[in-house]
Predict the structure.
Amino acid sequence: QMQLVQSGAEVKKPGASVKVSCKASGYPFTGHYIHWVRQAPGQGLEWMGWINSNSGDTKYAKMFQDRVTMTRDTSISTAYMELTRLTSEDTAVYYCARAVATGVGISFRLRRFDPWGQGALVIVSS
Amino acid sequence: QSALTQPRSVSGSLGQSVTISCTGTSSDVGGYNCVSWYQQHPGTAPKLVIYDVSERPSGVPDRFSGSKSGNTASLLISGLQAEDESDYYCCSYAGSYTFPSVFGTGTSVTVL
């Protein structure tokens, strides 16, 4: 079955960087974009950006644009999200999710996120 | 893009029905039939329960149903079960290939 398995929890000091991995199985990795979403403790879902698993093209939400880098390694069906210059406000669970989309150009539609990875807790603390 | 508006919490007794609303604009919810709903139990990842406004993935009980009217989508949970106690998030396509999605603020469902 389709599955995304993420790397484990991390504890980082302020100013450090973190890199979370997301390994896909059960579907053609390059056929779907991977999106990253984070959730701070007790808060809602916050979209961070996406990577085209085939071409490597990326797009980031404005608030993360200068601190986040999303990459992928198609040989091992794995996507990565690296966040730099961490602060305590980056303490959150980071999720990857497979995007299911149809159409191109004006008819493009992102229909759903399925499945999601199990999440990777990142704690930023001095 | 602003987050879609959901009620903070709703509650219902076992066996009853609850409806969660998700209000956006004509640029997202109202403009496309691409609303999805996710159930999230504490400490777990979101799980898809409805997509394309009213489609149910295989394995999701038929007591979950979705609809849309204008700029507001709704998730109906009929015949509430104890295991339905969870957080629920809506999500809509927002008309842009580059910034495609907007999430709702989330609703906590309590089963009394």
Summary: Chain A touches chain B at residues 35, 37, 44-47, 50, 59, 61, 95, 97, 99-101, 108-119 (CB under 8 Å). Chain A is about 0% helix and 50% strand.
